[in-house]
Design goal:
It is a multi-pass membrane protein. Keywords: ATP synthesis, Cell membrane, CF(0), Hydrogen ion transport, Ion transport, Membrane, Transmembrane, Transmembrane helix, Transport. One of its GO terms (molecular function) is proton-transporting ATP synthase activity, rotational mechanism. The chain has 227 residues and is mostly helical. It has one domain. Helices cover 81% and strands 0% of the residues. It has 7 helices and no strands. The longest helix is centred in the last third of the chain and has 51 residues. It is flat and about 75 Å long. It starts with a helix and ends in a 5-residue tail after the last helix. The relative contact order is 0.14.
């Protein structure tokens, strides 16, 4: 929990100081912050939701992206060594936020019950098929989406944490405790460092995928009538 709070505060402070007294021509930290926000705006929000509707949802998608990214980073930071997203609490909260966002997007455009109906009723199906398809659509749209968002993020970060623990524990074992096998510790240490570099890629990819799927769900909610 302390790591969660720490990383959230760091993200807030970064953007606060970057955008305080923002200039038309960005320099320094403001430039870094704007490049980061533009990445989310162009490659996720505008690409998926579109420019017209995208600006309304940029704040929520960008917040999710940067919070997930910052919360993933401690998995490779010494003395922190574990991502808050390797525990189910944080991914679940973020998935609930994404869930509320896409339900709000659909309900705002169509009305709540109309949105539900458009999301689960597939047009032009024979009447008997609706008894099978409607429950499946409801489950996949309103139950499975937040569940898969939660489990995907948690499982990936937990798996990375376990692998790093095993590799560095093996290095410690071969170097300090298993005399005669010290040379093997060099191999396990090299693999550990290589896996840390790979984990750094995973840190970014998981943030990107979580934000991307949030944008996809919002876009589908906005265009529920073209089911």
């Amino acid at each position: 929990m302390l790591i969660r709070l720490l990383m959230t505060v760091l993200v807030a402070l970064f953007f606060f100081f970057a955008m305080r007294g923002a200039k038309i021509v960005p320099r320094g930290v403001q430039n870094v912050a704007e490049i980061a926000i533009d990445f989310v705006r162009i490659n996720i929000v505008e690409e998926i939701i579109g420019k017209k509707e995208g600006y309304r949802f940029l704040p929520i998608v960008a917040t999710i992206f940067f919070i997930v990214l910052a919360s993933n980073l401690p998995s490779i930071i010494p003395f922190l060594n574990i991502s808050p997203n390797a525990r189910i609490g944080m991914p679940l909260v973020l998935a609930v936020v994404a869930y509320i966002a896409f339900v709000y997007a659909g309900a705002k455009k169509y009305g709540f019950f109309s949105f539900i109906g458009k999301s689960i009723v597939v047009p032009n199906l024979p009447l008997p098929m609706h008894f099978l398809v409607v429950p499946i659509e409801f489950f996949s749209t309103f139950v499975l989406r937040p569940a898969t968002l939660t489990i995907r993020l948690m499982a990936n970060m937990l798996a990375g944490h376990i692998m790093l623990v095993l590799l560095f524990s093996a290095t410690n074992f071969f170097f300090w405790q298993f005399s005669g096998w010290s040379a093997v510790s060099l191999v396990t240490f090299a693999v550990s460092v290589a896996f840390m570099m790979f984990e750094l890629l995973i840190v970014f990819l998981q943030a990107y995928i979580f934000a991307l799927l949030t944008a996809v769900y919002i876009e589908q909610a906005i265009h529920a009538d073209s089911h």
